[in-house]
Design brief:
Elements lengths: L25 H22 L10 H27 L11 H14 L3 H20 L13 H22 L11 H21 L14 H9 L5 H28 L1
């Protein structure tokens, strides 16, 4: 497609692979900086609101606004792709980040520990991985594009949401509940892999590595599906780093 014909609302699905900009390029770094600014602004704003996430409190309203914004952005992408006639099974919202966006809405409506735990364990690292290894920018032929912008904002909101409720004292991660995100992954991964095998998709990146991510290096060393072993080990390592401070804090509290 001629880049002169590509506009702000042109779907990424209608652009050619390799026509965009690279991971780590100045444009990517600029998007990362803006994403970090958005996350910091939301967290700081939330912390200064009156405590309370039940009823019509300011914090609950903000949680609803943040979560529904993420859903609204994704819905706008789907609608535009349908209008262009480029929407297909490869663009269904089935990635973990898409599912976590729905869980953000669920938590905003009915605050609960299991949902908060999954958002902490999957939403933060998943959102950050999406921002750092944004696979959609490789086919974003114009830097200022609605779909590219939505991709960064959606992942930034996914990082911001759990940080907001944690920083505000409305949710506290617990090592005792780490089985909940583990169970979530264990229940979702097998059917997703079967779905990918049947339709040729790659949701959750468990059928082939995500372009530009460390998964490609591991696949070259371990093969496919061998790369899933270091993938799983990395996930467990990240969770250990995320939960260990909370476990140590809980132990200190128990002693006093």
């Amino acid at each position: 497609m001629d880049t002169g014909q590509i506009g702000f609302f042109t779907p990424i699905a209608a652009m050619e692979e390799g026509s965009g900009f690279a991971i780590g390029s100045p444009f990517h770094i600029a998007y990362l900086a803006l994403s970090a600014l958005l996350v910091c602004t939301l967290v700081i704003t939330y912390r200064h609101l009156r405590p309370g996430i039940r009823g019509k409190t300011p914090r609950r309203i903000m949680l609803l606004c943040v979560s529904l914004t993420a859903i609204g952005l994704k819905m706008s992408e789907l609608a535009i792709m349908m209008a262009w006639g480029v929407y297909n099974v490869f663009w269904w919202p089935l990635h973990p980040c898409n599912i976590c966006a729905l869980l953000c809405v669920l938590f905003a409506i009915v605050p609960n520990n299991p949902t908060g735990e999954v958002l902490y364990a999957l939403g933060i690292p998943g959102g950050m991985a999406g921002l750092l290894f944004a696979d959609w920018i490789g086919r974003t032929a114009v830097v200022l594009n609605w779909f590219c912008l939505c991709g960064f904002v959606e992942h930034a909101l996914l990082v911001a949401f759990p940080l907001m409720i944690i920083s505000g004292g409305d949710f506290r991660p617990s090592m005792r509940r780490i089985w909940q995100p583990l169970a979530f992954v264990a229940l979702c991964a097998p059917p997703v892999r079967l779905f990918n095998t049947h339709f040729g998709t790659n949701y959750w990146f468990i059928n082939k590595p995500s372009p530009g991510s460390p998964l490609e290096t591991w696949a070259s060393l371990w093969g496919n599906p061998g790369y899933l072993v270091p993938f799983a080990l990395l996930t467990l390592g990240i969770w250990t780093c995320m939960y260990l401070p909370w476990a140590l804090s809980d132990r200190r509290r128990a002693r006093h």
